[in-house]
Amino acid sequence: MVDHRPTLIMGARGNIGRLVLEQLLADGVPVRASARRPEPGWFAADLTDPASLRPAFDGMAQVFLYATHEGAPAVAEAVRAAGVERVVLMSSGSVLHPTSAGNPITERHREAEAAFAAQPGVELVPIRPLVLATNALGWAHPIREGGGLPLYRPDALTAPIHERDVAAVVSAALTGTPTPAMSGMLTGPARLTQREQVAAIGRAAARRIPVIELSRDAALEHFSRFMPGEEAEAVLRFLDDAAAGNSPATSTVEEALRRPATGFDQWAADHAPEFQDDQAMPTT
Fold first, then answer.
1. Which tens digits make up the pLDDT trace of 29-47?
2. Which DSSP string corresponds to 89-100?
3. Rg of the Cα trace of the chain?
């Protein structure tokens, strides 16, 4: 018997959620969208407010979502109670990465996965990108300001993955039979230093971007302006690990999608306007 119940895309305004929503709509898949600040016709749902989830989950066959570890048990219970059969969960490749074990951010993702895996009758499909290319959007403001870009471990090698590749894996998991590769460690096709990533952005945005190397203490102070101190330390630990050569490039995207992963040069070209001065950005 064919299941015609819709698929819920939570966080449908986000970098990945909006792309998943676009793909499923293009494929003619019945969908429902939700967000904390919903568009017309969407559901208002907040993962930190379990009572808001019941209307959004009602009648859904499967859900795509990102859950923090604090709220994951309540969200997982709401999923089970609503009769949702599959959860495609935005997690992190760090849970599969041996040298990331013990990192607080890694362990939070692991706890969120465990909360959903514990629910009887719910199939869990974790999606595990290791390094998201969209992290580089955090460089946009200082680059637009025209000063130097402060970086810790600028020569650390990572293989950032384009959010379109992550969304494509999510969409494949929602529209077909999930495969082990879909829950493997997802990366871009090649490792690049942070300097090389900045250079790619500079080429795409047609601007020179000087790099200012930060000491560890200065980097901790810098990151702590934007996130709690524990998270800032966790980010530095990821970069220390990458500088030690421990952040791989995998073939998992190609195994999951039967096509090559998208390179960082293409990501930079796709996002070039976000790194340009307001005067240089195209008008709408």
1. 999 999 999 999 999 998 8
2. EE--GGGG-GGG
3. 19
